[in-house]
Amino acid sequence: MYALAKAKDELANYLSNVLNVDKEKVLNSIEYPTKEQIADLALPLPSVTKKFDIEIKGEYNGRLIKEVWKDGLFINARLNEKELLKEIFTNFSENYGIIKTERPLRIVVEHTSANPIHPLHIGHLRNAILGDTLAKMLKARGHEVNVRFYVNDSGRQVALLIYGLSKLGYPDPPSEEKKDQWLGLIYAMTNVILEIKKINEELKSTTNDSEYKEKIARRDELLISASELSKRNQEYFNKLSDQIMNDKDPEGEISKIIEKYEKGEEDIKKIVRKYVDFALEGFKESLEKLHIMFDNFDYESDLLWNNDVKLVLDFALTSVAKINYKGTAALDLQNYIDDDIRKEIRIPKGLEIPPLVLMRSDGTTLYTVRDIAYTIYKFRQFNADEVINVIAEQQSVPQMQLRAALYILGWKKFAINLIHFSYGMVTLQGMKMSGRLGKYISLDEVYDKVAEVVKAKIEEKKGILENLNEIVNSAIRYAIISVSANKPVSFDVKRVANFEENSGPYLQYTYARAYNILSKSTENLDISKIDENELKNEKRTLLLMIAKFPDIFINSVDHLQPEVLTVFLRGLADVFNSWYDKERVLQEPDESKRITRLFIVKGVETVLRNGLNTLGIASLTRM
């Protein structure tokens, strides 16, 4: 049991007797006051009893807690600083604060899962970093984690890319170009030319004046995009334009590609997989810069070819919840889940859930049915206790449909343990994106822009460049994980590379500062020599924060809230820097004061190191 857990236990023992309330109930209700000067720990009386006229009589004689008093509806407690420091550092280890769970689970984290048609862009950045951070945190907590990427290779977008490549004669990417960026250009060119062709044909039969003007305006916008794309490779653009504009039925060709691939015809299988894998090579190259890797890449097509999707579809078609919806088969989700089930699978009471359409009118399956098959696969393939899908908030309703469908079809355990980790969108200031028009800032460009700013700051400070990549990684990661997932992020390159405050590099700089104080010390840290009078003001605050770290770690991981740990580390860094700018450590002549301060620095250094590593940020000793 770590120090603060022992302190809470001590307080709970005392108060359970005073209040005549079950100890566990008291223990689970103890909280941290929002203002530290009020108290160190507090028990809100309404959480444990209806009797508020309690008197705390006499002096409290505890070890880790030195004072207990009542204030309104709260019973407050203050910790014994000297005993707290001794408790923390008597059995202190390099892994301090990283508390392993008593109930390790097998957890699948699926994230990023971008369509393999163009490079990853800033829109994918938040998904990838959040997913990777969750996986790292869960592993640190002692869970067995499997990280997966779902390759959507069977949809229209991939078929459109293959259609464009077919018009170019299925070329290989030039050796000097990054493969996903090369594919993204061909995809955007193909899409823009197809849209222009479609509007040209529609204009021939448009008689409504306002509708005609709208189409002309839309075509003008597309022509501007076409002009910009053509400058990037005139040869490709001219060839695609000639071929597509003279194609009598491009949509028919795209549909044939989809149909043949879904059936697993060998000729098209080889072609599609070849180019999809080119895209994945590019993804891996981009993500490795941020130390993001996957255990498995799961292809949607495999679920079709091995009949996983067909088995789910056939089973769903026999369900009592099957209905006819707009001329095709669907599952009625609204009338087959009551309020108790909604609570169990996290669907808000009263929210209308649309039917889940099982197939198109031509008999082909929709992505929602494939999601059911894939969810079952993830649980079974890893024998998972939980599956976490990191998906944008716009997919909240489809994710609810997925859980409801799983429950109705009998996979209740999977429905209950399927977690949608939802997040808001991320934008780059002053930039609107459209992958189909080739307008986006790629993840590689974001990385390079941040690297440029970071490098300039390091050179300005006369620092060392050997850890440039780790500093860039910290800047980008921190910008994403310091914000609550349900809030939008506006990505500002200059702000994320700030070395002075509220950034990843700032935390790394603070860690290096603490580390270097300790590395220069030759002191034997004898705990019997500490000066308890030193444990005041900022030093007391730092001691309490060091004590709270195990709690912060546990709560951050168990509630899947990386921002809680991130914000805590930033607060710790702020207090440490504020204190260190005013007081010396190694130069302090009084031995007891010096040793006490070194213990505080040691605690800060360890908490920062373990916290940063948990979040996937390197703790650098030199900057």
Description of the structure:
The protein has 23 helices and 13 strands. By secondary structure, the protein is α/β, with parallel strands linked by helices. The protein has 4 domains: 3-79, Arginyl tRNA synthetase N-terminal domain (Gyrase A, domain 2), CATH 3.30.1360; 106-151 and 297-428, Rossmann fold, CATH 3.40.50; 156-264, no CATH class; 449-614, Orthogonal Bundle (Isoleucyl-tRNA Synthetase, Domain 1), CATH 1.10.730.10. A 5-stranded parallel β-sheet has the order 6-5-4-10-11, sandwiched between helices. Strands 1-3-2 form a 3-stranded antiparallel β-sheet. A 3-stranded antiparallel β-sheet has the order 7-8-9. Helix 3 (81-90) crosses helix 21. It is globular. The mean pLDDT is 93. It catalyses: tRNA(Arg) + L-arginine + ATP = L-arginyl-tRNA(Arg) + AMP + diphosphate. It is an enzyme of class 6 (ligase). A motif ('HIGH' region) lies at residues 114-124. Keywords: Aminoacyl-tRNA synthetase, ATP-binding, Cytoplasm, Ligase, Nucleotide-binding, Protein biosynthesis.
In spatial order, strands of the major sheet run 6-5-4-10-11
Q: Please outline the major beta sheet.
A: 5 strands, parallel
CATH class categorisation of the largest domain: Alpha Beta
Q: Decide which structural class fits the backbone.
A: alpha/beta
What name does the CATH topology of the largest domain carry?
Answer: Rossmann fold
Distance between the termini: 36 Å
State the helical fraction. 40-55%
Task: Write out the CATH superfamily name of the largest domain.
Answer: HUPs
Which strand-content bin applies to the residues?
5-15%
Shape from CA axes? globular
- Radius of gyration (CA) equals 29 Å
